[in-house]
Amino acid sequence: MLKKAAVPLLGLLIVVMAGCASTESSKMPPADVNGTWTGGGATGAATYTLVLKQTGTQVTGTLTGAGSLDGPIEGIVDGNTIRLREQGGPGQTPSLMVKGDVITGFIRGTTLTLRRVR
């Protein structure tokens, strides 16, 4: 009787373990955002410069060109997205998409595009 119950239980355990393994292996490594990035919004009213240093998923750096928001920033990279905020500040940007040497996103009613300086 125990053998009959153990076989389906073992099968279920194998399926669950395989699902956990595939979830972990499908997680994307963080995008590389190290370097200097420049650009601005669709209106072209301002040019921003971000200098970012990445350690794993953690990012620190400086922002210039944003007026009163200029200064140290920090953030987190998750796969191909990055979220930034003033260092120690409460607010956070929406997720910005990282694709190679371009960061894009929608902030304060406009599309932001930053390109890595090579």
Your description of this structure?
The protein has 118 residues and is an alpha+beta fold. The chain has a domain at 35-116: Lipocalin (Beta Barrel), CATH 2.40.128. The protein contains one helix and eight strands; from the N terminus they run αββββββββ. An eight-stranded antiparallel barrel has the order 1-2-3-4-5-6-7-8. The longest helix is centred in the N-terminal third of the chain and has 25 residues, at 2-26. The chain is globular and about 35 Å long. The N and C termini lie far apart (69 Å). The relative contact order is 0.16.
Shape: globular
Regions with little confidence, pLDDT below 50 for 5+ residues: 1-25
Per the CATH scheme, the topology name of one domain is Lipocalin
Spatially, the strands of the biggest sheet line up as 1-2-3-4-5-6-7-8
Overall CATH class of one domain = Mainly Beta
State the order of secondary-structure elements, H for helix, E for strand: HEEEEEEEE
Structural class: alpha+beta
Distance between the termini: 69 Å
Number of strands: 8
Q: In this structure, how is the largest beta sheet organized? A: 8 strands, antiparallel, barrel
Separate helix tally: 1
CATH architecture of one domain: Beta Barrel
Tell me what portion of residues adopts beta-strand conformation: 35-45%
Mean pLDDT across residues: 80
Radius of gyration: 21 Å
Proportion of residues in helical segments: 10-25%
